[in-house]
Design a protein that fits this description.
about 150 residues, mainly alpha, three-stranded antiparallel β-sheet, extended
Length: about 150
């Protein structure tokens, strides 16, 4: 097979994989995917976390995380409070409803997908992961080389 054709097929598969990360069960209409990601980050970071820690974990700017936290607070999914020793620092924790939403639409969903994967050949997925990492390295290297050439 021609390498330019295989590259086209690889890129098509990667776009499909990216779209796959956006497939979830239908949420209640007021919940966004980004809300679930913030709830999950809080869950992973611990009981009560700083907004800056959420921002750092998710690699999203502090203003964007702050807005998402405000939305989640309005929905009653998180509770926010200022740190008593430094009022500039906001701490956030999941409410019971926030954990319920996270569990139902993210944690349980992931468990079910993982369960389905148990019946598949995991070795194929491990190879896929390594191939994606290798491809990322190759594409990054070529882009860097071209950027350097364009600067000359």
């Amino acid at each position: 097979m021609d390498t330019s054709k295989i590259l086209d097929d690889i890129l098509d598969a990667i776009y499909l994989a990216k779209d796959t990360t956006k497939i979830f069960p239908t949420f209640p209409e007021h919940i966004k995917t980004s809300h679930l990601y913030v709830l999950y980050a809080i869950y992973q970071l611990g009981n009560e976390v700083r907004v800056t820690d959420i921002s750092n974990k998710m690699l999203i700017t502090l203003p964007n995380i702050t807005n998402l936290v405000k939305e989640l607070e309005k929905l009653g999914l998180v509770k926010k409070r200022a740190l008593e020793t430094d009022k500039r620092v906001s701490l956030v924790r999941l409410t019971d409803e926030g954990f319920h939403i996270l569990d139902k639409y993210y944690l349980d969903y992931n468990k079910r997908v993982a369960k389905k994967l148990e019946t598949k050949n995991i070795k194929n997925y491990q190879i896929m992961i390594e191939c994606i990492k290798e491809l990322n390295s190759i594409i990054s290297k070529v882009a860097k080389e071209m950027n350097q050439e364009n600067e000359e």
